[in-house]
Amino acid sequence: MTRKLHIDVFFEFICPWCLIGKRQLQAALQQFKRTHTDVDVIVHWHGVQLIRQLPIDGVPFQAFYQERLGNSENVERRQAQVKHAAQAVGVEIDFSKIKRMPNTVKAHRLFARVQELATPEQQEQLLERLFAAYFQRCEDLTESTVLFQIAAECGYSQPQLALDLNAAEQVFHSANTGGHGVPYFIFDGRLALAGAHPAHVLCDSMFEALATQGWPA
Questions:
Q1: Cβ count within 10 A of residue 31
Q2: Integer Cα distance of 79 and 51 in angstroms
Q3: In this structure, are residues 18 and 182 in contact, taking their beta carbons and an 8 Å threshold?
Q4: pLDDT tens across 43-53, in order?
Q5: How many CB atoms lie within 10 A of CB 217?
Q6: Are 74 and 111 a contacting pair, CB within 8 Å?
Q7: pLDDT, the chain, mean
Q8: Are 89 and 27 in contact (CB under 8 A)?
Q9: What's the CA gap between 195 and 65, in Å, rounded?
Q10: Could you write out the DSSP letters of every residue in the chain?
Q11: How do residues 11-68 score in pLDDT, each as one tens digit?
């Protein structure tokens, strides 16, 4: 009999820890499936807009972080920490190339629409491409033309999406994360973890969640 394990992941496109956490989850899934080939793991992605108060066209990246962290030394220290953690999971981030801190409401609106149309594999493709747009390609996620081009690369034309990215604001929030921010993982609706944990921690959480179903881990 095939068992099912649901994982809800709350994320934000401009949060590097979410990209790092996604890579850790991928590694955890590989570990888990080596011993649990009879378990169907279903990942549900939930967009969280962390900084809703940003102007719709965003703000300069460096100025945003200098104001947020106090001075350039703090910014450099934080970015070095993030780059080190990202490199450990095979992700290269060059913060010097990122020009804008975007308001991500349009990106979340696009992803939510594709979720209505796409298979989990197609959702994964778009999610990866949107992360890459910000962290690797330094594209502006506030630009509708950029977002529709990304969707087209993933197989969805603007007419097919029937989506107005400038429509009245849709709320993307962290109501289900208990105020813990992102990334935030919920395993089978029972066990929650906040933060970009190592793969073995996420894998252990899968085992624990499975055991609470009454199945042997």
A1: 16
A2: 19
A3: yes
A4: 999 999 989 89
A5: 13
A6: no
A7: 91
A8: yes
A9: 20
A10: --EEEEEEEEE-TT-HHHHHHHHHHHHHHHHHHHH-TTEEEEEEEEE--S-TTS-TT-EEHHHHHHHHHSSHHHHHHHHHHHHHHHHHTT----GGG--EE---HHHHHHHHHHHHH--HHHHHHHHHHHHHHHHTS---TT-HHHHHHHHHHTT--HHHHT--TTSSPPP---TTTTT--SSEEEETTTEEEES---HHHHHHHHHHHHHHTTS--
A11: 999 999 999 999 999 999 999 999 999 999 999 999 999 898 999 999 999 999 999 9
- Partners of 152 in the beta sheet? none
Token pair belonging to 46: 């939930």
For 80-93, give the DSSP string. HHHHHHHHHTT---
The whole-angstrom separation of Cα 41 and Cα 206 is 9
Tokens of 15: 């949060």
Of residues 83 and 167, more confidently modeled: 83
Tokens encoding 57: 């066209």
- Residue 144: both structure tokens together: 């509708």
pTM of model > 0.90: yes
Q: In the chain, what are the domain boundaries?
A: 104-168
Give me the residue label for tokens 């910014």. Answer: 75
